Amino acid sequence: MITALLKPEIQDFINQNYHTDLKKLALTRNPFPEISWPDLLNQLQAKNKAKDKLPTWFKTENILYPQKISIEQTSSEQTAAYKATLITGKSLIDLTGGFGIDDYYFAQHFDRVTHCEINPELSALVAHNYSVLNSNNIECRQGDSHDTLRNSDTKWDWIYIDPSRRNDAKGKVFMLRDCLPNVPDSLDFYFQYTDNILIKTAPLLDIKAGLSELRFVAKIHVVALENEVKELLWEIRKGHSGPITINAVALTKEGEIHFSTSDDADSTVRFSAPKNYLYEPNSAILKTGAFDAVSAVYKVGKLHSHSHLYTSDTVVDFPGRRFKIESILPYQKSEIKAHIEGKQLNVTTRNFPLSVEELRKKWKIKDGGTTYCFFTTDINNEKIIVICSKI
């Protein structure tokens, strides 16, 4: 299929039609009978999805795409590029290669990278793309990656794994043992071939749950893109027994925002009533669960043990949204009718019994504007509304 898809007339068709309405296009006649219509439509749909997520692939001629789900599940270029800066060495083997975005960036920091993929069509497609992208230090091996390890006499500097959740996994709790490969049960096997493992998991995984399953965790990285947590990265170092460093990074259009702590760091929290400024941590920091450490590191007061909002007298350089407090109202009907009801406001809730949607409906609040309202609970367990302007 690769050879047929690379015909100039087919590539021209893809480039001219990737942004068209595929539902309407699917009802028309296939202009290239040598390619199945569903396969060709998939190239259009996948290329369209790659436009923002994978701009290097999108802009490069003769790139071929896998099924749409592989595009949806793969790392974005921004997160892959950041991830590749975390580790270095001479050799890395990726046991769950997929579409190979991560390996493209790992190859810029390692002498050689091995991409393992059990699906033969996907493996061939990725090998073609690496050739087009001039990634000459990546070797693609098709087959079971555990067999690849067993048949290799290499001691790898790093093993990289992005386990996928089994389709038949039951229950609401996401555990690593629910995934393929089963990393917790395979650690001793992996340590025969490396001393260092980097594991990527989805944000759904609870950090405490991951720590309960894994041994030798040295670092955990929480990576957010435009304030949405995209992935957790677990650095496993054979024999590690010291503190666990927890890093949060927010990748934004303006640059990177970092926060770092450890499981044995000073987490002396300061509680405070709202002062002059209010702070809402980036989603990456919220995912770390290091709520008390935020107070200690940035020397800001916390409104309540469960509110995860912070305050200070003078403005500080804080990793998240910053606001100037204009007024503070008790959550009372008379106050709401006078200052909130029917107004256009940006509404956020933290440790509050009603959701944003319920508050908007109950008090006829319109979305938008330049005023921000935080419905939350203070240090005295009183429900309050903090009205702010964004800095």
From TrEMBL:
It holds the Pfam family Thump_like. InterPro entries: PG_1098_Fer (IPR054168), SAM-dependent_MTases_sf (IPR029063), Thump-like (IPR041497). Keywords: Methyltransferase, Transferase. Residues 320-390 form the THUMP-like domain. The keyword Kinase does not apply. Residues 277-319 form the PG-1098 ferredoxin-like domain. The keyword Cell wall biogenesis/degradation does not apply. GO terms for molecular function: methyltransferase activity. GO terms for biological process: methylation. This is Class I SAM-dependent methyltransferase. It comes from Flavobacterium cerinum.
